[in-house]
Protein 1
Amino acid sequence: MTGSSFVYVTFIRTTPDKLWSALTTPEFIKKYWFNIQHETDWKVGSPWKMVYPDGRITDTGEIAEFDPPRRMAFKWRNEFMPELKAEGWSRCVMDIEPVEDVVKLTVTHTMELEDAKFIGAVSGGWPKILSNLKSLLETGEIVLKEIR
């Protein structure tokens, strides 16, 4: 593939249904995503956006795929940093796969643009968000309070 990509794989002690719920329930998402609200109706073709607590929009997009509890994909663009917004649209895919008594979550974030700064940015953010998600599902607590 040409372009830029970031792939993150983690194994979580949960079920596919519980992980799916954690990825699609707005109040639960806020717990591990640093209090950022995700707004959508979770239907293919529907708009999606992430909103900071102060009302600023961080990212926007569209639900591209929605196959509970196996796979979801987003068309995704950063909105709050002009240099990242100028790079255009990316695609984020989340694949959920049961493996023995755990669940494998693979997040693949791609752009057609070579050396995309946006993919560089998400490569720092995804590990923090997904570490919080894993910890929250397994222990009931997040590990990081700020994204920094």
Protein 2
Amino acid sequence: MPPAKKRARRYDSAKTRAAVLAQFAHVRDGVAALTPEQLDGPTRLGEWTVRELAAHVTMAVGAVARYLGEPEPAKRDLTVLDWALATATASARIDEDTRAIDTGDLPGLYGRTAALYEERIAGASDERLVPTRFGAMTLADFLVTRTVELVVHTDDLNAATGAAVPYDRQALAACVRLLADALAAKAPGGAVEVRIPPYAVVQCVEGPRHTRGTPPNVVETDPLTWIRLATGRAEWAAELDAAQVGASGERADLSGVLPVLS
């Protein structure tokens, strides 16, 4: 896997650790409030039911504790940006692993996952390497990827059930920033400025680089719309028509480089 060329931004690890736990707690409360009928309902994720989606969230967070319980790899293989650009290669394995989870006791599953996460994360070094699906990465980087999993699937859960599971601000910010940086790594350049206030601004797409004044090519949208576009949950043209995305300039069309994570 070739490394992403763009340098990854730095994240406050203490805030990321807390954000993962906070967003997981929000999802846990939301899932606990669902009826059996809602849990058996469909989602926008292929054949997954809400129950399977809920189980997948525990797998995403439980991976932190699981990897910390394994021997530390000898060397680092990837960064957060490499992870974001590699996720599409594991969709079949992720589906298989999710369907294998016993969902008979979701409250118990969430409780055990949270307890083991807190136990193993305590005292673990940010630089400790963990063996993810795609290669070894630091614990600090892996935790940033967990904010993406949690925020994206919180949105999936809300879309499927009509629930209003809240978003931890730090988790939402980390998710938006990583997906924006992944876009800049996938389509490097300085011709288009992408703004997702209040969390991120990146430049991308080959072409003349803008250095001062108002950029000639600007894309702006809100955090959740950006997350849906970046993960293939929303279509560029539809969001543009619905005025959920503002795009000005002849190069401000990102349809050819979206999604960045799927």
Protein 3
Amino acid sequence: MRLRQIAFAARELAPAENALLSVLGLSTAFRDPGVGEFGLHNAVIPVGGDFLEIVAPTQENTAAGRYMDRRHGDTGYMAIFQTTDAQAIRDNADRLGIRRVWNTDHDDVTASHFHPVDMGGVITSVDSFPAAPDPDEEYCFWKWAGPDWKAHVDTSLTRRMTGVEFAHPDPARQASTWSSLLGVPARAVDDDGFDMAMSNGGQVRFRKTVGDEQPGMRELDFVMTNKTQSLQRAASLNLDCDADGFSLMQVRFNLTDV
């Protein structure tokens, strides 16, 4: 099970996309016309062999728009995982009573989105592709990034994405749900925290909400080729930043030197 893509929801695509590309030194590879089904347009951005995505509404009353209303602005929205057998994960979901809100089945893909309420505040997708029998191959096939995404990989500032952290009032319950769905053990790390290790070395963390914090995506982790330059760019955009990262779209970006 590999964490392959993180999606953000933004009111306006261009400003959020430009900020993300500038600070992390990345390049947009693809704009997927398929997200029009959800009343959205998007940008898919490689980070090494993984991806960031930004979606923005093109019409009223979209699921992403309602999610931003609840979160009071641009925000982390979705976590997408890659496995060898997405149908097995669907079977787990049905057994556990986790609702599927979208499914697709074609010769080249099997994928499902799972309800954010059931998953603790974030849409979760699990996808598999016959063209990617080994999801842990760094640059393996990824349908949602278009046909030539590898030509857009730029690791001059950011080398790879290594983890995500979710906040929840009951992280033990959230970790148990995710572990049961994904078939990945969750390890207790303290009284209020649990970790899941992904097959390619990535990490998914569950931590307790603080104060009036809403359940959802809290942090992302990146290994940097040039951390100093990235932080300088974040400061030039007046983002909230310190010596180890910055915040954008209500998510903390943790940066570690390669």
Protein 4
Amino acid sequence: MAVIITMIYYFVFLFLYLQDVISGVSFVVILLLSLILLSIALIVYWKKRAIKRKIILTTSLMTLLFCYELPLLFYDSYKHAAYRYTAPLEVYTGSGIYLLGVNRVVFQFTENKKAVIDLLNEQQSDYLDITKITNSDRYGSKNLQLLKWFHLGEDSVDQMRGNVNHFLGLEDEHINDFLNSDQIEGSSAGLGLALTGLILKGDLQNELKIAVTGAISETGDVIPIGILKEKMQIAEKSGFSLMIIPSANRKEAMEIQKKLNVSIKILDVAQVDEAVQLINELNKKSK
């Protein structure tokens, strides 16, 4: 019962944090004060075994929760993120398959969007969008960092490498060189890399310039991606007339296209083989 009550108590404040009602500092301080009160209670009831056992269990659990959430203190200062233009990249020259990446820059201690715009203007830096970082964003970043520190879970780039190589049935030096770059993050280049690999193998021919984004599974299923709006803006700004995206992102893409008046033709696929068929049809129509 003591464990259940402790977890309910913890989740109440976690919920308030994720809803941006309290800050990360407040959340951690609440856990710390709870830990101090439990320590005092332990001293008071030290001679009462039954109560002492429950308090020790609760204190141990609260200590673990406090340690787990302590890194949030370092994330509270991150207030806004700016998404900047990154030129689409053709991993293999002549493939016509261009990968879309976005440069995300996080700003600390900026209380409003105007302050970020002023900083970017001072740096003469062009940007696509500026978003406010929420506690939910911070919490996700903290959890990912903890996984990296303790080597738990597979890195997204390594996972993408494994999925692409498994689908292609081989490793290609061009793809490996791209994946070994320090600037690569996430897994949204998977579809483009798979298509590039098929071109390198001679299983696909393409004479068109196509912007591509989408993660893939080992079996070639195309998985949805994030930061779609900025990628569509980059494709439009770079002069592409065709863009392939995951089918799961189609509805979002249509809404973005309508809102931003993006003229690029959006094509969606659910499988790498579907993308291959689509590219073949597009090339036939262009001749």
